Amino acid sequence: MIFDVREIKRLRESLGITQAELAKRVGVSQSLIAKIENGKIDPKLSVVKKILDELTTLMEINEYAERVMRSPVIVATLDEGVKEIVGKMEKHGISQVPVVNSSFELVGIIYDYVILRKLAVKSPNEISVKDILAPLPPLIDPKTPVREVMKLLTKYSVTLVVDKKLKPLGIITRSDLISYLINNNKGPQ
């Protein structure tokens, strides 16, 4: 799922801070915050990360990853083809798919941008899962505090919630976390 930067406005407002306050905290102009919130510009990822990091530091949340995670996790297997995987991603509106082995243990993750790079030089039939398999993102326990998840998601686009045998229980993206915070009115306590 792709994060819409215009969601920053809803999150900022739920925290009760102004554009000017947020701009000062992040070290940018108020007009830049306004343009980002209104979708008038496509900001650098580094700016979005700074904004989200600042907004999340204003929150006091006493909940755990299991409350935020999306489950069940849509996964791919090592024997699936690229066309099947892309079809799965399109069907579910996701941009990454964890990959499991025959024991349903995580072995890696496939990101849409990696598939795109490979398709630029090879046909889908020439690409195997191993060609597009990336290392696993951070793995967390269901009882990981949401504040820790927030910190991870300022650096990574996704984190996976797993059991002790590395079997996926849930997935959390930045968009999932922001939607959860907005929909549950989590603000400064």
From TrEMBL:
Domain CBS as annotated: residue spans: 69-127, 133-187
Coiled coil regions, renumbered to chain: none
Matching InterPro entries: CBS_dom, CBS_dom_sf, Cro/C1-type_HTH, Diverse_CBS-Domain, Lambda_DNA-bd_dom_sf, Tscrpt-reg_CBS-contain_prd
Keywords carried by this UniProt record: CBS domain
Residue ranges annotated for the HTH cro/C1-type domain, each copy included: 8-62
Signal peptide: none
Domain of life: Archaea
A GO MF term: DNA binding
PANTHER family listed in its UniProt record: CBS DOMAIN-CONTAINING PROTEIN CBSX3, MITOCHONDRIAL, CRO-LIKE PROTEIN
Listed name of the protein: CBS domain-containing protein
Gene source species: Candidatus Aramenus sulfurataquae
